[in-house]
Amino acid sequence: MELCRSSALLTGSLGLVCTLIALSTDYWFEARGPGFSLHSGLWPKAFRNNIADYIHATQSLLILAAVWGLVSVTFLIMSCIPSLSVRGSWPLASSIMAFAAAIFATVAMVVYTSERWNQPQHPQVQTFFSWSFYLGWVSAVLLFCTGGLSLGAHCRGPQPGYDTL
């Protein structure tokens, strides 16, 4: 149980950090052409009033993923403190929150990927996804791993019965 809980805490913390870095950086998409190089993220500076709906959806879903990831990590930390630990309840709650965060992150990444993928290309401009985008996908995978490891910690933990009363 300790190995699962410790691993879940590590992957959850890494997933939360990756989500926050992906949210706050401007290297989701890059464009290179003859004599110029541009990059953009989820918080475009140029056209504040004319931001595409898929950007708003991705922002909202990743913020929700970060909040649920933070709650999941908090529950895992609480499960490590003996005075706060209620047998078996914190890892299960953490697992539910981590899976919710992973689903939000995955949906956000799918929305962004599908919308960017379908945009028209200019023949002289090379466009590609950049490192912030890939960090968003890594965070989704790490949050799924956190959910699985938290569930493993819950299943391997002591079950209530007469001997624990």
From TrEMBL:
It comes from the Eukaryota. GO terms for biological process: defense response to protozoan; inflammatory response; killing of cells of another organism. The keyword Protease does not apply. Pfam families: PMP22_Claudin. It is a multi-pass membrane protein. The chain crosses the membrane at residues 54-78, 90-111, 131-151. InterPro entries: PMP-22/EMP/MP20-like, PMP22/EMP/MP20/Claudin. Regulates cytotoxic granule exocytosis in effector lymphocytes, thus acting as a critical mediator of inflammation in a broad range of infectious and non-infectious diseases. Essential for cytotoxic degranulation of natural killer (NK) cells and CD8(+) T-cells and for the activation of CD4(+) T-cells following infection. Plays a critical role in CD8(+) T-cell and NK cell-mediated cytolysis of target cells and contributes to the cytolytic activity via the perforin/granzyme pathway by enhancing exocytosis of LAMP1-carrying lytic granules. Belongs to the PMP-22/EMP/MP20 family. This is Protein NKG7. The lineage of its organism: Eukaryota, Metazoa, Chordata, Craniata, Vertebrata. The gene is NKG7.
